[in-house]
From TrEMBL:
Keyword Transmembrane helix assigned: yes
Superkingdom of origin: Bacteria
Keyword Ion transport: no
Phylogenetic classification of the source organism: Bacteria, Bacillati, Actinomycetota, Actinomycetes, Glycomycetales
GO BP annotation list: proteolysis
Pfam families attached to this UniProt entry: Peptidase_S9 (PF00326)
Domain Peptidase S9 prolyl oligopeptidase catalytic: 213-367
InterPro entries membership: AB_hydrolase_fold (IPR029058), Peptidase_S9_cat (IPR001375)
SUPFAM superfamilies per UniProt: alpha/beta-Hydrolases
Protein name: Alpha/beta hydrolase
TM ranges: 23-46
Molecular function per GO: serine-type peptidase activity
Keywords, sorted A to Z: Hydrolase, Membrane, Transmembrane, Transmembrane helix
Length: 386
């Protein structure tokens, strides 16, 4: 038998190549598995940043340097020197601070408009508070109220009910991981105009029933609780309602308005720094944190799976034809939490004259803080036009 030398040499080489290719494929497969695991892990983490419920204690990163009956001095920083009206919160108290009276390289002295409760002293740890008012309507604003229970599919949800005149009630809805106190800036205006107000809670709020999965649904199922609140108002003398939502409360209100579209009971909608599109908002937040696109994509898919939602269903621009009521939109162009351009786009898609847009540039849900009088005037004029 004759053996070709080249063939004899090629056979072992071919086997070595196959073994090398197999090893390479195994290595690539292992790398792919590890990459997918890392992608899924990062996506899971960032999904939790969006839908996990968190009512943990606040952090107080400032120290009161000086205080008297009319002013308070704080370390100088972006938050402490920003113009407008803000809250100053500390562990056992709350104050309202106003204009900047003086400043130097290290400190800012602001007008101390009033102390709502607690004792403000030098060396008190504190923080600037966009909500401005805390606690309840009586403590914060001197407004009488009753705490009522709103029947929902998950159980009774507490709410503040403020008496007023007329049959148009206002239902105020706060944002993610917040409380009805966030809405007190608006409640103050409505109460002054004589409107009955219902400042509601929704699932996963402190004191309210938890969602079955214990997660935020970004407006999808929280809106059912607002629909229940509207039914409560109708059962107690209201003929129609104005819905007013802040931040994620804007997504909740918008989705509730769609669910109530055929009833004719929503007289108007007011939105303050609303989340009109979670996709673009999450894209913006991810970009601000330098999160790469594949992780952002994975986080969105995990959000949808964990919360049993479709983010496209919460892009209100996809359902613009379901909004036939007058709308007042407070849009802050300096918003670093929510994609404000989605709100502007939503407004442009509405029929001409249906939406009134008020723009400010002081941060998320800070339209009132920039100029409370202008905010109140815009809201008053809008309500008068209904």
């Amino acid at each position: 038998m004759t053996v070709n030398a080249d063939t004899a040499t090629d056979a072992p080489a071919s086997k070595r190549r196959r073994r090398g290719l197999r090893a390479l494929l195994i290595s690539l497969g292992a790398v792919l598995v590890l990459a997918l695991a890392a992608l899924g892990g990062a996506g899971w983490y960032f999904s939790g940043e969006v839908i996990n419920v968190d009512h943990g204690p606040s952090e107080y990163g400032l120290t009161v340097l000086a205080v008297d009956a009319d002013s308070v001095t704080l370390p100088r920083g972006e938050a402490t020197e920003k113009p407008g009206t803000w809250g100053l919160a500390w562990e056992d108290g709350q104050a309202v601070i106003g204009e900047v009276l003086a400043s130097d390289e290290d400190t800012v002295t602001r007008a101390l408009d009033r102390v709502l409760y607690g004792d403000l002293a030098v060396d008190t740890p504190a923080r600037i508070d966009t909500w401005t008012y805390r606690d309840d309507p009586q403590t914060a604003l001197g407004l009488a109220y009753e705490e009522v229970a709103i029947p929902t599919e998950l159980g009774d949800a507490p709410a503040w009910q403020l008496a007023g005149e007329g049959t148009t009630w206002v239902v105020t809805v706060h944002g993610r991981n917040a409380s009805p106190a966030e809405t007190l800036r608006g409640v103050e205006v409505y109460a002054a105009l004589g409107y009955p107000v219902l400042a509601v809670t929704h699932r996963n709020d402190e004191g309210a029933p938890a969602a079955p999965d214990g997660l935020h649904s970004l407006g999808e199922y929280e809106s059912d609780d607002v629909v229940d609140a509207v039914e409560y108002a109708l059962d107690n003398g209201a003929e129609d309602v104005v819905l007013h939502g802040w931040s994620m409360g804007g997504a909740i209100v918008s989705t509730a308005a769609r669910k109530l579209a055929d009833t004719g009971v929503v007289k108007a909608v007011v939105l303050d720094s609303p989340v009109m599109d979670w996709n673009s908002t999450l894209d913006m937040q991810a970009a601000d944190r330098d999160v790469i696109d594949p992780i952002t994509w994975a986080a969105k898919r995990i959000v949808e799976w964990r919360a049993d939602i479709d983010l496209d269903d919460l892009d209100q621009r996809n359902f613009v034809d379901e909004f036939d009521m007058p709308m007042l939109l407070f849009v802050d162009t300096a918003d670093e939490t929510v994609d404000h351009t989605a709100t502007l786009d939503f407004a442009e898609r509405l029929p001409e004259g249906q939406a009134t847009v008020v723009t400010t540039a002081s941060g998320h849900t800070a339209s009132w803080n920039e100029d409370p009088a202008a905010y109140g005037a815009a809201l008053t004029d809008f309500l008068a036009s209904l």
